[in-house]
Amino acid sequence: MKKVLITGALGQIGSELTAHLRKIYGTDNVVPSGRRTPQGSKVVEEGLYELVDTENAQQIADTVKKYNIDTIIHLASMLSATGEANPAKAWNVNMGGLYNVLEVGREFGCAIFTPSSIAAFGPTSQKVKTPQEDIQRPTTMYGVTKVAGELLCDYYYKRFGLDTRGVRFPGLISYETLPGGGTTDYAVHIYYEALKHKKYASFIKAGTYMDMMYMPDALDSIVQLMEADPSKLIHRNAFNVTAMSFAPEHVAAEIKKHIPEFEIDYDVDPIRQAIAESWPDSLDDNAARLEWGWNPKYDLASMTVDMLAKLKEKQI
Ligand code: SER
Questions:
Q1: How far is the first Cα of the chain from the last one, in angstroms, to the nearest whole number?
Q2: Which of 157, 224, 256, 285 is deepest in the core (most CB within 10 A)?
């Protein structure tokens, strides 16, 4: 990666990836982009920034040309719960945006990173330690777009030789920018509420396991995969990656070690609960470990220490 365009850079991953890549590759070599220009945003104000709506292929192409971009990290996407609220929009944003990015990538010869998700699996996939290659019949529109995206990226690699790469992210936990409308978001909200109100009503039931990862590991996975030796990559576009698997009561118990008064209760959202139950409890990420050295640093205990410290510093 030398000159990187990030789409969806104002989102949960993009806002932190922008700062991370600016540090590694230099501020002038990172071009974050989004559909708005919010005032006071570090993404917008601490370096280059472009307005790019990924449903507009011309805007992507103009930006790639303007900065001589060699890598596109395509993060603009709708998540699972908002996708169920508006499936037509989720299809248009997720598939239309990816198609445009791939076409521009083909025209200008860019490498492309696209995140897939645990949502690319469904109720007929193996539930525990879901293998790299397994049945993929998801039951959400978000999941449908993620499977189709994995296939489309494979197609562009095989048919046009485009350097497409990607991982299946689990729920991502972070303190900089809130996630926008996912099913795993409870595992972020719980930390904010623990500090603010010493209690949290989880919209996901006790006993519901999902895979999770702390944002610093997610950022490392993107850089590591994009810098990996391509001859070693057998599963280019959809590496299972994970760092931990837990249910709401486990993160609550971990928080309680630091905030003894903290209490969790449950106010279950049937839509997000059904989505969570359709996903794996945990993934097997051996292919990523073998093919490009994936090895996350944070587990639930170390993530909880860091999350609480960082949110306290932010004085949320
Ligand atoms: N975090 C995402 C969601 O919950 C999963 O990829 O929608």
A1: 35
A2: 285
